[in-house]
Amino acid sequence: MFYKSICKIFCRIRMVDNKLGKLNKRELQRLLSYIKRDPRVLVPPLPGYDSGVHFLGDKCMVVSTDPCSDVPEEWFGWLLINYAASDVALFGAKPEFCSINLLGALGTKPTLFEKVMEQVCVAAEELNMVVVTGHTGTYKSLNKMVGVCTAYGRIDRSNLIMPSNIKSEDIILQIKEIGFEVLSNFSFMRNKLSKKLFGIIKMQKLLQEISMQSCVYEALKLADLGGVNVMHDITEGGLVSVLNELADCSGFGFQVENEKLLIKPEIKILQEYFSLSDDEILSMSSSGSLIATINPKEKDRILMEISKFGIFGRVIGKFSKNNKRIMIRNKKKFVFPSVSIDPYNKILSG
Fold it and tell me: Helix (H, G, I), strand (E, B), or coil: what is residue 25?
């Protein structure tokens, strides 16, 4: 699983053309081609899979690792835990254990490590997770702190929820609006501009919504309901990356309706201020929001059940045997974007 961790981290840093973000599928496949298959591993590193799975006695262990950087310092440790824990939960497993690496720039004060570690432990306790091991250190090659969390959770093989489980005609359900991550992080990291664009009352509300960047709660509730075939969070590359990855994994096409997408209304203000295209909005990293594909016969039951837990979802489209990838906008069909243009760094840098 060492190689799983390394490859997942590499996926977060595009090394071609000096662009930030995940490697594209072709580049990632070249990287993964060096890893030998092993019968002890049920789900090896694969494009579109944010967790791996290995056998552990009569159960399976879901493992996911995620880096954390360029986020509000006040929530660094909390987000570090929840990013990786969310990926484990999206496979249907309750996150139980984790390891933590905190890597600082040369000169990073011990008090910053301590502050982040306190946040880590608060987040872990909230999820009833245990920090098992980790590493801390300072390095010349870094100019800011980078954290890496690897989370683990046990599950019966029969209960695994994986991208390969998609069925043709599955309905696409979106949980939580696109934009929580960008809006809350923007309000922390570009506080003056956020106050100017949204006003102090709205900005304070956006600051409070930073905890929406976890989908552990929503994923585990959905997993318990049955009828859910696949779950995937809307992280780097946004909806563009998620839907294309799921289509690649399944071989199916999909159709989504632009007017049905759940998008935070404040995103329109950012779109106008930063001159963002519609494709950039669709590509916007939205940690905490997720896509679930569900059996159409289970739609009404699932929507009713999740509402009891305070979870709001909306059907935005469906998969189909037809391999076309379609966006319906104003009742007209367009080809869904194939390449994500995530505006996170454009918005947060300043």
Answer: helix
Starting from the edge strand earliest in sequence, which strands make up the sheet with 171-175, in order?
A: 228-233, 290-294, 171-175, 313-320, 253-257, 325-329, 332-335
DSSP class per residue in 101-118: EEEEETT--HHHHHHHHH
The DSSP H or E segment spanning 135 is strand 130-139
- Domain ranges in the chain are 2-159, 163-348
Per-residue pLDDT of the chain (350 residues; tens, 9 = 90+): 444 444 444 444 333 344 667 788 899 999 999 999 999 999 999 998 999 999 999 999 999 999 999 999 999 999 999 999 999 999 999 999 999 999 999 999 999 999 999 999 999 999 999 999 999 999 999 999 999 999 999 999 999 999 999 999 999 999 999 999 999 999 999 999 999 999 999 999 999 999 999 999 999 999 999 999 999 999 999 999 999 999 999 999 999 999 999 999 999 999 999 999 999 999 999 999 999 999 999 999 999 999 999 999 999 999 999 999 999 999 999 999 999 999 999 999 86
**Left (φ > 0), alpha (ψ -120 to 50) or beta: where does 48 sit?**
left
Residue 97 three-state SS: strand
3: number of CA atoms within 13 Å, CB side?
Answer: 14
Give the strand order in the sheet containing 52-56: 41-43, 52-56, 59-68, 146-155, 97-105, 130-139
For residue 139, CA distances in Å to 103, 106, 107, 110, 136 come to: 7, 5, 9, 14, 10
232: β partners? 291
Count CB-CB contacts under 10 A for residue 300.
9
The enclosing H or E element of 276 equals: none
**How far, CA to CA in Å, does 127 sit from each of 121, 123, 202, 214, 337?**
10, 7, 29, 11, 36
Which uninterrupted H or E stretch holds 283? none
Residues 6+ away with beta carbon under 8 Å from 94: 88, 153, 154, 155, 220
Topology of domain 2-159 in CATH is 60s Ribosomal Protein L30; Chain: A; (3.30.1330)
Secondary-structure class of domain 163-348 per CATH? alpha beta
Tell me whether the CATH fold assigned to 2-159 matches the one assigned to 163-348: no
